[in-house]
Amino acid sequence: MENVMKLWVVSLISAILVTGCATPQKVIWDKPGGTLEDFRRDNYECVQQSRVSWSGGGTGSVGLVIMAGAQAQAQKQANDLYRMCMEAGGWTGHVQQEGEEGIR
């Protein structure tokens, strides 16, 4: 039974690490009439507003799983808050296509 639990924990941690190592998609932000200076100002403000704290607990393998889950949840929340902040400022974001250039 203990070996099954260890295998499950190792599998879960491996899945989290593989997901975390995936290449993030670059987002292009556009705003009608927006300049690079506007983007830099709004980007800075939204990064500051989207900062979230996270914590985990537990010990051993269970603690690692809890911490990895808390970090992933906090990152998703920060990304959502950042996107909402940029959209509230009039920016629209879309995934960058190969060869496409734009702000961020």
Describe the structure.
The chain is mainly alpha-helical. It has one domain. 60% of the residues lie in helices and 8% in strands. The protein has helices at residues 2-20, 36-49, 60-88, and strands at 27-30, 92-95. It has a two-stranded antiparallel ribbon. The radius of gyration is 18 Å and the shape is elongated. The mean pLDDT is 77.
TL;DR?
By secondary structure, the chain is mainly α. The protein has one domain (25-104).
Count, helices: 3
Please state the overall shape, judged from the principal axes of the Cα atoms.
elongated
Structural class: mainly alpha
Nearest-integer average pLDDT = 77
- Unreliable segments of 5+ consecutive residues: none
- Percent range for helical residues? 55-70%
**Percentage beta strand:** 5-15%
What distance lies between the first and last C-alpha atoms, to the nearest angstrom?
50 Å
- What is the number of beta strands? 2
The order of strands across the largest sheet is: 1-2
| Biggest pleated sheet | 2 strands, antiparallel
How many structural domains does the protein architecture include? 1
What would you report as the Rg, rounded to the nearest angstrom? 18 Å
H/E series: HEHHE
